[in-house]
TrEMBL record, chain A:
SUPFAM superfamilies: WD40 repeat-like
GO cellular component, as recorded: kinetochore; lysosomal membrane; nuclear pore outer ring; Seh1-associated complex
GO biological process: cell division; cellular response to amino acid starvation; chromosome segregation; positive regulation of TORC1 signaling; protein transport
Protein known as: Nucleoporin SEH1 isoform X2
Keywords: Cell cycle, Cell division, Centromere, Chromosome partition, Kinetochore, Lysosome, Mitosis, mRNA transport, Nuclear pore complex, Nucleus, Protein transport, Repeat, Translocation, Transport, WD repeat
Family per record: Belongs to the WD repeat SEC13 family.
TrEMBL record, chain B:
Region (Disordered): 493-534
Lineage: Eukaryota, Metazoa, Chordata, Craniata, Vertebrata
Name recorded for this polypeptide: GATOR2 complex protein WDR24
UniProt KW keywords: Autophagy, Lysosome, Membrane, Metal-binding, Repeat, Transferase, Ubl conjugation pathway, WD repeat, Zinc, Zinc-finger
Protein location: Lysosome membrane
Organism: Pipra filicauda (Wire-tailed manakin)
Main location: membrane
C-alpha cells in the first residue's frame, strides 16, 4: 500500500522532473518557471524545501543528482540551450536564513544550439561524467577530469543521432564485461519509420561511441527511457515510454560470437508492452533493484509493473496522482483475465511436478 | 510537405491566404515593413532596399529602390517604415544619420523624396504617426529625437532625452500626442509631441539597453519593452507610475517586440544575437513561448505582422538574407514537447510524482486518447475561455507516495544486510543463521537455499575432512533443529508448499508482493493464492512422506552415534529432492506431462529436464560413494546466477562469501566482481557503511579488496599545538606530546577517534558524544563551540 503525501511545491508553472538523490533523503524538482527546488526529508518524513533558485532563462526540463562522492551536486538542463552544474555550499549557514542552503553555479555547458532536453550523470565508476542530449539530435558527453574542480568540464564526445533527442539513459552496469553504453530516445513526431531508440556503445579500440543497436520496433515519439539498475545481471533491461510502456531486455552476445573486436551485439527481446495508460506515457522509473517499473501517462496515473517468475510482466498497482484509488472497471477486467490465465498455468505446472516425481 | 498547407483568413473585405514561404535576398536585411493592404513588404538593409509583393505561393520582387551605379550611404538603411495611410510613402533611417522619405508615386527610377540630414549619428528608428499623414519621428544614436513635418524642409521639433542613444521611438496608437522612446541606459521616456522641452515621464525599464518597445494595439495603456537583459516587460501606463504587469524571460537579448493582432496577451519577439528563432509569448505564461518559428539560420532583424487584424501571418527578415512568411499552423509549440509529468523511484520504494494538475484532477475517462496533443488553439477566432485558462495557467501537483513498512519497501534488504552472518563461524552455523534471518523476513525461498547449502557443503563436504567427527556432530545437531523448526512454526500447507519446488515458492512470494503493493486486485489475488493452495494439498502426502523420512532419520541420530556415516545415505532422498528442484525450476513441472512439447521457452526447457533427470540417476547410483560437494557446484552456481538475474544480488554475494573457496572457482572473476560492486553500491546507498566495509574485506576479488586500501590517509592536527601532524606515530614531533588523547578521560585513544575540525580536540567517540549531549563547548576547555552531527 502506498500513502500519498502531497507537497505544496509552489512552482509557478509545470514541474517537468523530480529526482531523488543517491540515498533517497533529498529530492530536487525543476519547473518551467526556470527554477530548481531542493527538498530535504525531515525525521518525521516531511519534505521541506531547503533551496529554491532561478537556474536558467528558460524552462528547466531535467534535474539530476551526482553521486555523493563528488559532493552535493546537481545538474539541470533547459530550453535556454544550456546545462548547468550546481554545487551546494555548506559552512556559512549561520548568516543565511535558517534552513536554506546555498547553491552556486559551477559551470554552464553552452555547446548546444537548441534546447537541451535531458542530462544524466554517468555511473560512478566512470568518474565524474555527464551526457546531455538536445533537440537538434546531438548527444554530448562531458567529463570533469579533476573531480575536485567542478567548474572545468571538457567535451569528450559528440554523437549525432540524426533525430531530435528527448531523453537519455546510461547503462548503470559496473561490470567490466559491459562497456559504457547510452540509450537515446527521440520525440521526433514526423511520420517516418526510423527507430526512435538508439543505443550507443563505447568502443575501446576507436575510443568513440558508436551505434550498437536501434530498436526498430519503436517508431512513435519516445518521451522517456530508463535502464534498470543492473545489480549483477548479465543482461540489461530497458524501459521505454512512448505511446505505451515497453520493456526490452538486451542480452550481450559473447564476444567471440561477434565480429572481431567491434561492438557488442545484443539479443534484444521485448518482454512487455502495455497500453493501459491509454495515452502517451511520459515517464518511466525503476526501483532500486530493477524489479519494479513505475510509469506515468497522460491519464494522470502511475502504474507499477512487475515480472513474475515466468518473466511475465504484470500491473501490480495503480496510483492516482491525487492519491485517490482508481476505480476503473475496465482495468479490473484486464486483471481478472491475466491472473486467471496465470492461475491455470500454475496448476498445470503443479500437476506436472507431481507427475515427474512419480516418474523418478 | 503537407505541413505547408495553405491558410486562408477572411478579414472583412480582403482575404489573406498563403503558406510558409521564403525568398532569398541579395543581402542581409536590417528591417522590414509591410504595406497597409498586406500585399507588399519592403526590405531594407545596408546593401538592400527592395519591395516584394506577397503572392499566394511566393514573394515576387516588385521594385528595387536602390538605384544608381554607386549608391550613396543614404541607401544604407538601419530602419524602414511604410506609411499606414499613404501606400506610396516610405521612410528610412540611414546609417549615416540621414532620414529619407520615398515616394513610390514618382515617375522616375529614383523614388527618393526628401532628405533630412539633421542627426549627427546613425538613426536607429523612424516612425510615422498612425493618423497624421505628414508627421514623422526619428530617434538616433546621438541621443536626440526629431519630429518632421513632411511638408517642411526641416524638423519641427527636437527632443533631447538627456540620456544615451535612442534605440526606439513609437507613437502611441491611441493617444494622439504621445510617443515613447527607449534608451541604451535602460530608460523609457514618454513625450508629448507638443512639448519638446521636457519628457512627460521617465522610468527605468531594464538593466542595460532597451532595444525596442511596442504599444498595445487595443489597450492604450500597455507598452511592451525588450532589453539586453533578455526580458520583455509589459508596463501599464495608465497609472501615475508605470507599473510592470508582466515580465517574460527569454533566452537572449530582445531586439524586437510586436504585439500580436487580435490576441490581447500575445507578443512576438526576436533576438539580437545567439538565438535565431522568433517566439510568440502569452505574457500571462511567461516561461514557455506559446509558439516558435525556427526557420532562420542567422539573427532575425525584423518581424512584422502581415496585417493589422490578422494574427496568423508573420513576416520576418534576417541576417541570413532571407525573407520569410510564417504561418501559425506551422509553428512549433514547445509546450507540446514539454513533459507534463515527473516521476522518480526512491531508494526506499517511495515514488515522487509531479503532474500537471489538469491531468490528475480530470476524470481519466473523460479525456480520450489524443494521438497528437496539439490543440488547434491558434485557429480559434474567439478562444474558448476555459481552454484558454488551462493553456495559460498550468501548475503541477507534487506528491510522494510512501510505501508502508510491510510492502514494497526495501526494509528487508536493510534487515538482511544487518543480520546476515558472513564469516567467523563454521559454515553450517552461518547457513543456519542466515536461513533463519531469511525466514524471519518471510523470504522462504532464500531460507531454503541457505538450508540446502548447509546440507550440501557442511554435512557432505566434511565427511572426507580430518575433523570429521566434530563437524558432523555439529551438523547433525543442527539438522533436527531445523526440521523441528519447519514442522512446528509453519502451517502444514505452507510448509509443504515451501518444500514443493522453487517455482512454487517464487509464485508465493510474488503473490505476497502483489498483494501488498496493489490496491486493486486483492480479490483476484486471494483467489489465486487459494487456487494454488489446492495443488499443494494434493501433493502434501508425497512431501510429508519425505519429511517423515527425514524426521525419522533425525530421531535415529542421537540413538546411534556410530551411524553417523550412514546419515548421508539416509539424507539423500532429502538432498535429492531439494537439489532437484532449483535446477529443474518450473520448466520441469511444466513439461513433465509431455516432455517434448516446447513452449515459448523452448531452449531452456529442452535442456533442463535432461540435466535434472541425469542428476537424479547419478545421485542414485553414486550416493553410496558420497558425492563430493563439487558435484553440486554447477547447481549452486546456477542458483547464484538465478538470484543475480532476479535482482537479488544480496543473496548471491552473501552465498559467495560464505561458501568462499568452495564455489569461487565456478564463477568467473568478472561476474563476481560485478556482483560485489553492485552489492557494495547498494549497501552504500542505504548508508550501511560498516557492512559494506565488511563485504569488501571478505571479498576475494582483488579489485574489490583494494577498495579498502584507497585513500586511507587522514590528516589531523595535534590537539596540543594545533599544527598538522606530519609523522606517523602518536607523538607530535613539535610538542613531543601524545596527540590523540581523549579530552574527556585523558587517555590515549585507540580505535574510534572523533575530533573537532575546528579546535582539533577530540577523544573516544562515546565520550565525546556523551559530553556534547550536555554541553556545547569543547571538553578540552578551549572555549570552542564544537558540534557533533
Amino acid at each position: 500500500m502506498f500513502v500519498a503525501r502531497s507537497i505544496a511545491a509552489d512552482h509557478r508553472d509545470l514541474i517537468h522532473d523530480v529526482s531523488f538523490d543517491f540515498h533517497g533523503r533529498r529530492m530536487a524538482t525543476c519547473s518551467s518557471d526556470q527554477s530548481v527546488k531542493v527538498w530535504d526529508k525531515s525525521e518525521n518524513g516531511d519534505w521541506h524545501c531547503t533551496a529554491s533558485w532561478k537556474t536558467h532563462s528558460g524552462s528547466v526540463w531535467r534535474v539530476t543528482w551526482a553521486h555523493p562522492e563528488f559532493g552535493q551536486v546537481l545538474v539541470s538542463c533547459s530550453f535556454d540551450r544550456t546545462a548547468a552544474v550546481w554545487e551546494e555550499i555548506v559552512g556559512e549557514s549561520n548568516d543565511k536564513l535558517r534552513g536554506q542552503s546555498h547553491w552556486v553555479k559551477r559551470t554552464t555547458l553552452v555547446d548546444s544550439r537548441t534546447s537541451v532536453t535531458d542530462v544524466k550523470f554517468a555511473p560512478k565508476h566512470m568518474g565524474l561524467m555527464l551526457a546531455t542530449c538536445s533537440a537538434d539530435g546531438v548527444v554530448r558527453i562531458y567529463e570533469a577530469p579533476d573531480v575536485m574542480n567542478l567548474s572545468q568540464w571538457s567535451l569528450q564526445h559528440e554523437i549525432s543521432c540524426k533525430l531530435s533527442c528527448s531523453c537519455i539513459s546510461w547503462n548503470p552496469s559496473s561490470s567490466r564485461a559491459h562497456s559504457p553504453m547510452i540509450a537515446v530516445g527521440s520525440d521526433d513526431n514526423s511520420p517516418n519509420i526510423l527507430a526512435k531508440v538508439q543505443i550507443y556503445e563505447y568502443n575501446e579500440n576507436t575510443r568513440k561511441y558508436a551505434k550498437a543497436e536501434a530498436l526498430m520496433t519503436v517508431t512513435d515519439p519516445v518521451h522517456d527511457i530508463a535502464f534498470a539498475p543492473n545489480l549483477g545481471r548479465s543482461f540489461h533491461i530497458l524501459a521505454v515510454a512512448t505511446k505505451d510502456v515497453r520493456i526490452f531486455t538486451l542480452k550481450p552476445l559473447r564476444k567471440e560470437l561477434t565480429s572481431s573486436g567491434g561492438l557488442t551485439k545484443f539479443e534484444i527481446h521485448i518482454v512487455a508492452q502495455f497500453d493501459n495508460h491509454n495515452s502517451q506515457v511520459w515517464r518511466v522509473s525503476w526501483n532500486i533493484t530493477g524489479t519494479v517499473l513505475a510509469s506515468s501517462g497522460d491519464d494522470g496515473c502511475v502504474r507499477l509493473w512487475k515480472a513474475n517468475y515466468m518473466d511475465n510482466w504484470k500491473c501490480t498497482g495503480i496510483l492516482k496522482g491525487n492519491g485517490s484509488p482508481v476505480n476503473g472497471s475496465s482495468q479490473q477486467g484486464i486483471f481478472n483475465a491475466s491472473l486467471g490465465s496465470a492461475n491455470t498455468s500454475l496448476q498445470n505446472s503443479l500437476n506436472g511436478s507431481s507427475a515427474s516425481r512419480k516418474q523418478s | 510537405m503537407e505541413k505547408m498547407a495553405r491558410v486562408t483568413t477572411a478579414l472583412g473585405g480582403n482575404t489573406l491566404s498563403g503558406r510558409t514561404m521564403f525568398c532569398h535576398l541579395d543581402a542581409p536585411a536590417n528591417a522590414i515593413s509591410v504595406c497597409r493592404d498586406a500585399a507588399q513588404v519592403v526590405v531594407a538593409g545596408r546593401n538592400i532596399f527592395k519591395i516584394y509583393s506577397i503572392e499566394e505561393e511566393q514573394f515576387v520582387e516588385k521594385l528595387n529602390l536602390r538605384v544608381g551605379r554607386k549608391p550613396s550611404l543614404n541607401f544604407s538603411c538601419a530602419d524602414v517604415v511604410w506609411h499606414q495611410m499613404d501606400e506610396n510613402l516610405l521612410a528610412t533611417a540611414a546609417t549615416n544619420g540621414v532620414v529619407v522619405t520615398w515616394n513610390l508615386g514618382k515617375p522616375s527610377r529614383n523614388k527618393q523624396d526628401q532628405l533630412f540630414t539633421e542627426h549627427k549619428r546613425t538613426v536607429n528608428k523612424v516612425c510615422f504617426h498612425p493618423t497624421e499623414v505628414y508627421m514623422l519621428l526619428s530617434g538616433s544614436q546621438d541621443g536626440y529625437m526629431k519630429c518632421f513635418d513632411l511638408r517642411k524642409k526641416d524638423s519641427v521639433s527636437t527632443f533631447s532625452g538627456q540620456s544615451e542613444s535612442v534605440r526606439d521611438v513609437q507613437f502611441s496608437i491611441r493617444d494622439y500626442f504621445t510617443f515613447a522612446a527607449t534608451f541604451e541606459n535602460g530608460n523609457v521616456q514618454l513625450w508629448d509631441i507638443r512639448r519638446p522641452d521636457r519628457y512627460e515621464r521617465m522610468f527605468t525599464a531594464h538593466n542595460g539597453p532597451v532595444f525596442c518597445c511596442d504599444w498595445h494595439l487595443e489597450d492604450r495603456g500597455w507598452l511592451a519593452t525588450g532589453g539586453r537583459d533578455k526580458m520583455v516587460k509589459v508596463w501599464d501606463m495608465n497609472t501615475t507610475r508605470a507599473k510592470e504587469i508582466y515580465c517574460v524571460q527569454t533566452i537572449a537579448s530582445v531586439a524586437r517586440v510586436k504585439w500580436r493582432p487580435e490576441c490581447k496577451h500575445h507578443i512576438a519577439t526576436c533576438s539580437m544575437m545567439v538565438d535565431h528563432n522568433i517566439y510568440v509569448w502569452d505574457v500571462r505564461r511567461p516561461f514557455i513561448p506559446s509558439a516558435m518559428f525556427e526557420e532562420h539560420k542567422d539573427v532575425t532583424t525584423g518581424i512584422v505582422w502581415r496585417h493589422l487584424h490578422d494574427p496568423y501571418f508573420l513576416l520576418s527578415g534576417s541576417k541570413d538574407s532571407t525573407l520569410y512568411q510564417h504561418i501559425f499552423k506551422d509553428a512549433s509549440q514547445p509546450i507540446d514537447r514539454a513533459n507534463p509529468e515527473g516521476l522518480c523511484y526512491s531508494l526506499y520504494g517511495d515514488l515522487a510524482f509531479a503532474a500537471k494538475e489538469s491531468l490528475i484532477s480530470s476524470d481519466s475517462n473523460r479525456k480520450p486518447y489524443i494521438g497528437d496533443r496539439r490543440h488547434p488553439i491558434f485557429f480559434k477566432r474567439k478562444l474558448d475561455p476555459t481552454e484558454q485558462f488551462e493553456y495559460i495557467s498550468s501548475s503541477s501537483a507534487l506528491s510522494v507516495f510512501e510505501t508502508d513498512v510491510e510492502s514494497g519497501s526495501m526494509d528487508w534488504f536493510v534487515h538482511t544486510a544487518k543480520q546476515y552472518a558472513l564469516a567467523g563461524r563454521p559454515l553450517a552455523e552461518l547457513c543456519d543463521h542466515n536461513a533463519k534471518v531469511a525466514k524471519g523476513l518471510d523470504r522462504n525461498q532464500v531460507a531454503q537455499t541457505w538450508t540446502m547449502l548447509r546440507i550440501i557443503y557442511s554435512s557432505l563436504g566434511t565427511v572426507s575432512s580430518a575433523n570429521l567427527n566434530h563437524s558432523m556432530g555439529k551438523g547433525s545437531a543442527a539438522l533436527p533443529l531445523m526440521n523441528s523448526f519447519n514442522l512446528k512454526d509453519i502451517p502444514s500447507g505452507l510448509g509443504s508448499e515451501s518444500r514443493l519446488d522453487r517455482s512454487k515458492g517464487e509464485s508465493r512470494t510474488e503473490n505476497i508482493l502483489m498483494d501488498s503493493s496493489s490496491t486493486l486486485i486483492n480479490n483476484e489475488d486471494n483467489e489465486e493464492t487459494e487456487g494454488s493452495d489446492v495443488p499443494a494439498d494434493y501433493l502434501l502426502g508425497d512431501v510429508e512422506a519425505d519429511e517423515d523420512d527425514l524426521y525419522m532419520m533425525d530421531h535415529e541420530n542421537p540413538h546411534a552415534e556410530e551411524q553417523e556415516y550412514s546419515l548421508p545415505q539416509e539424507a539423500f532422498p532429502l538432498r535429492h529432492e531439494i537439489v532437484d528442484n532449483p535446477s529443474a525450476l518450473d520448466h520441469l513441472q511444466d513439461k513433465a506431462d509431455s516432455p517434448h512439447v516446447s513452449g515459448n521457452e523452448a531452449e531452456t526447457v529442452s535442456l533442463t529436464p535432461v540435466e535434472s533427470f541425469s542428476l537424479i540417476s547419478i545421485s542414485h547410483s553414486l550416493y553410496e560413494n558420497r558425492l563430493p560437494s563439487d558435484f553440486f557446484s554447477p547447481i549452486v552456481r546456477d542458483t547464484l546466477l538465478f538470484y543475480a538475474e532476479q535482482g537479488d544480488v544480496q543473496t548471491a554475494v552473501s552465498v559467495l562469501i560464505v561458501l568462499g573457496e568452495r564455489i569461487r572457482k565456478e564463477i568467473d572473476e568478472q561476474t563476481q566482481e560485478h556482483w560485489y560492486t553492485s552489492y557494495i553500491d547498494l549497501l552504500q546507498r542505504f548508508q550501511l557503511w560498516n557492512i559494506s566495509n565488511e563485504v569488501i574485506k571478505l571479498s576475494t576479488c582483488r579489485a574489490i579488496n583494494c577498495l579498502n586500501q584507497a585513500s586511507t590517509t587522514l590528516h589531523v592536527n595535534c590537539s596540543n599545538c594545533k599544527r598538522p601532524m606530519s609523522n606517523r606515530g602518536w607523538i607530535c614531533d613539535r610538542c613531543r606530546q601524545c596527540a590523540s588523547m581523549c579530552a574527556v578521560c585523558h587517555h590515549v585513544v585507540k580505535g574510534l577517534f572523533v575530533w573537532c575540525q575546528g579546535c582539533s580536540h577530540g577523544g573516544h567517540l562515546q565520550h565525546i558524544m556523551k559530553w556534547l549531549e550536555t554541553s556545547s563547548h569543547c571538553p578540552a576547555g578551549c572555549g570552542h563551540l564544537c558540534e557533533y552531527t
